[in-house]
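Action item from last meeting closed. Structure (125 res):
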């Protein structure tokens, strides 16, 4: 299934890749970029940009900074999650603090989610 996206978000996604947070860079360079299943950074989906996306596992990973914990941020995340679930995607979220203090645990959890999805789908692709 091809994902819809807003072409106007491509430039913004490129800028977000260039100006990633330290936590996003840590997760990308120290785990996801070398992971056995391909992930993409700052993937445009619908009118949104996902921090990380794995097509094979239909998985979005979001790294949440402080802006996500305001009332407006929470509402925006809920709205966005509902739209993205319409594409049959799973969304998992981590805080910046989780990346900073429990990086190995975050990586193990991501690995378990990806592998569980692949088992459900009938094996590694």
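Sequence:
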């Amino acid at each position: 299934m091809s994902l819809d996206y807003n072409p106007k978000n491509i430039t913004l996604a490129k800028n977000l890749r260039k100006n990633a947070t330290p936590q996003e860079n840590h997760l990308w360079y120290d785990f996801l970029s070398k992971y056995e299943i391909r992930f993409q950074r700052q993937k445009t989906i619908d009118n949104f940009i996902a921090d990380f996306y794995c097509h094979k596992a239909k998985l979005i990973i979001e790294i949440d900074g402080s802006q996500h914990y305001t009332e407006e941020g929470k509402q925006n995340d809920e709205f966005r999650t509902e739209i993205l679930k319409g594409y049959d995607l799973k969304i998992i979220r981590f805080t910046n603090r989780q990346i900073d203090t429990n990086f190995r645990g975050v990586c193990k959890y991501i690995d378990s989610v990806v592998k569980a999805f692949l088992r459900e789908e009938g094996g590694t692709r």
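Note appended to the action item: The CA atoms of residues 23 and 99 lie 6 Å apart.
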